[in-house]
Amino acid sequence: MMVPLDPSSKPTSQRRIAEGDTVVVYERHDAMRAVAVLPGAVLQNRFGVFRHDDWIGRPFGCKVHSAASAGGGGARGGKGKGGGFVHLLAPTPELWTLVLSHRTQILYLADISLVVSYLELVPGCLVLESGTGSGSLTTSLARAVAPHGRVCTFDFHDQRAASAREDFERNGLTSIITVAVRDIQGQGFPEEHTGAADAVFLDLPQPWLAIPSAGTMLKQDGVLCSFSPCIEQVQRACEAMRSCFTDIRTFEILLRTYEVREGGLKGATTNEESNAVPLAQKKRKLLAAAETLDVKQNSSSVMVRPCSTARGHTGYLTFARLRVHGN
Amino acid sequence: MAAIPREAWEGCSVLLDINDGDRLAFFRLTPAATVKVGNRTCSLQPLVGRPFGSLFSVGPSGLVPCADAPSSRDDTTQDAADGPSQDETRDNRSLVDNNTAQNLSSDDIEAMKRDGVSGDEIVEALIANSSTFGKKTLFSQEKYKLKKQKKYAPKVLLRRPSTRSICETYFKKSPARTGFMRVDALSLLLSMANVGPYSDVLVVDMVGGLVVGAVAERLGGTGYVCSTYLGSAASSIDIIRMYNLSSDMTTRIVQAPLSDLCSLQNSVDVSSGLNDSIQGEAQEPTAVPVENTQPSVPQPTDTAVPDEKTQSPKEQSIDIDIPEPLLDEHINQDGNSSLDSKGDEDGSSIGPKSLKAGKAPSPERMKYWSEHGFSSLIVAAPGHDVESFVADLLPLLSYSAPFAIYHQYLQPLATCMHSLQVSKMALGLQISEPWLREYQVLPSRTHPHMQMNAFGGYILSGIRIHNGDACNGSK
């Protein structure tokens, strides 16, 4: 279960994979997929064929090997023990962000974590979101406000709203997330939420059209966030916020990642050693070889460098607080 | 009951933002609490019952709520934007800095103050008597006005303490105390560790309790925060007092030494079938931990003990070196007296509450965690070599549990990541560094902030995996 809604459903070492569970199949850090566990079903990938029946009863986080009897006939059968493997992980909103099918451009971990923190969400809050998109942020919002809070998310695209609703249902989040089809830019948020929302999140092409409505939804000192890729959108949104919002701040957050490997750096003395070897007597050769080995061992260390590729821009995040009326 | 309290109440912790971030300080709203703004000491009583987000000015009798429109800088900006565009073409070619622009002398200003003229009126008088104000660009006029307002008409904003504002305040005032952890790094830690309802989060917090408080706020009274520490002296988690945690949230913050958690784990592994033995072991945490009584099983834990002992003095020195400099010295005295006053008046309710945080977990809870594992792990030990104890912490997690390790230096995380890769205890390992840029967005004046904090720390994240017999068999 993506977000535990009662203590018995929380993931622990004792919990086993059961029929109907969603597991994240981890092949490599950039190759994962979400799979629903069904009796009799099989998963095929480049590492082999995996039977779901073999997964049921195993703990999350285990390593599973492909079925030996499948694949390339006799030759593969003979090498059954050498079959590929994958890891089965319990789903989390972070893993879901990496594996979900993209129906729209989505927010990623750095933006999502800043949004949840700056909206000051805690269990029990009510959050309004538009648009739903692929549901990447919605799942993290649900985790932040569960078990008693609510996320009301709106999208003006019928099919995307239906697909998102299916995803939330599959992940067991229907008691927290409600999905509605509504054009927030044209109609505003529904009046039933007036003055009830702790936070509002907008990911819309024209957020300035929705900001007055967002203002009427929020409790005093509630927080609004608008996500826009272009600075012109931000300017118009900030202009629309000035009338009833304060503490308006715009951020951009990016994540740089590093790769780690073990290796050695060549020293100047190594060349001298190699040059000296042919000229030395037999005894000196042995000494030289030993010294070379020592040098190599000493120079081996853990080295780290930034990854060459990184996401250069996702969007600007603008946060604002509903102004509190004095006197 | 609302999830977030929207009004200040007596005895609560508040964050006061004086003059748009020029000064930030935490206060507890007790009857005797005061704040010094400029030369004047004001009682905090007018803040009780006011909604968070209220703005106050300093009047003759103390803090006074501001009316809406004139107080807002945003309104000023809007008025400026409405000005004729022709004015915006002015420049500074005719302005000379000869110190004769202001016709009011300092004696005149002092006389106005003595006569009880309000700060806003002083600002208006200064503008009227400035011979160059009319020649300035609108932007320069706005800057001039804001500067005078901060001096003669200071504003005090009543802010609710939250993870966001507490982290930002400490990062601004005393970043070394919280290991130079920026708010976006703390946000990432909480997300990467999947902190959510009913989580049991294992925390190594050597940043004053900032992480413990943030996790407790996210849990909202569900799940537990188990703050563990190395050696026998518990790490300070005083910052959690800044959060207004409910008693339910506070009682779910427990502290236990890492040696106890590891020894219990080992005893379960060795004699999982003997319930009596387990219960006997479980009783240890309730007593004062004594190193000698620990089982002498030849485990890596035992070899780590000398290192932990060596590190203990370092921890203590860290705490000693950085007392809470957040409060000014004068106000610190008030703070002390207010704390005493709080003890006197609300001893029955607040005293026990403060004592509840950081208790040792119950034997049943310890047994549960040794069998089921923790839901996630967060390590914030910016002064330590994390590799030495992360290997002890990971077996305490559930399978498929995420963890996140924060450090201010890159090399300790690289070494730790490499050792985790070699030992195959985890996968999805990733070292990340957040980069956060803030923008000024105003009409025709949009640009990134000229000054930014260029460093927010590094985070190593991953997921613990199951290393079962099947895996060994296949090898």
TrEMBL record, chain A:
The keyword Ribonucleoprotein does not apply. It is found in: Nucleus. One of its GO terms (cellular component) is tRNA (m1A) methyltransferase complex. Its EC number is 2.1.1.220. Belongs to the class I-like SAM-binding methyltransferase superfamily. TRM61 family. Residues 84-321 form the tRNA (adenine(58)-N(1))-methyltransferase catalytic subunit TRM61 C-terminal domain. Keywords: Methyltransferase, Nucleus, S-adenosyl-L-methionine, Transferase, tRNA processing. InterPro entries: SAM-dependent_MTases_sf, TRM61_C, tRNA_MeTrfase_Gcd14. This is tRNA (adenine(58)-N(1))-methyltransferase. GO terms for biological process: tRNA methylation. Its main location: nucleus. GO terms for molecular function: tRNA (adenine(58)-N1)-methyltransferase activity. The keyword S-adenosyl-L-methionine applies. S-adenosyl-L-methionine binds at S134, G135, S136, L137, D155, D183, D203. PANTHER family: TRNA (ADENINE(58)-N(1))-METHYLTRANSFERASE, TRNA (ADENINE(58)-N(1))-METHYLTRANSFERASE CATALYTIC SUBUNIT TRMT61A.
TrEMBL record, chain B:
InterPro entries: TRM6. One of its GO terms (cellular component) is tRNA (m1A) methyltransferase complex. The keyword Cell cycle does not apply. It is found in: Nucleus. GO terms for biological process: tRNA methylation. Residues 95-106, 291-302 have a biased composition (Polar residues). Keywords: Nucleus, tRNA processing. It comes from the Eukaryota. Residues 66-107, 286-362 are annotated as: Disordered. It holds the Pfam family Gcd10p. Substrate-binding subunit of tRNA (adenine-N1-)-methyltransferase, which catalyzes the formation of N1-methyladenine at position 58 (m1A58) in initiator methionyl-tRNA. Belongs to the TRM6/GCD10 family. Heterotetramer. This is tRNA (adenine(58)-N(1))-methyltransferase non-catalytic subunit TRM6.
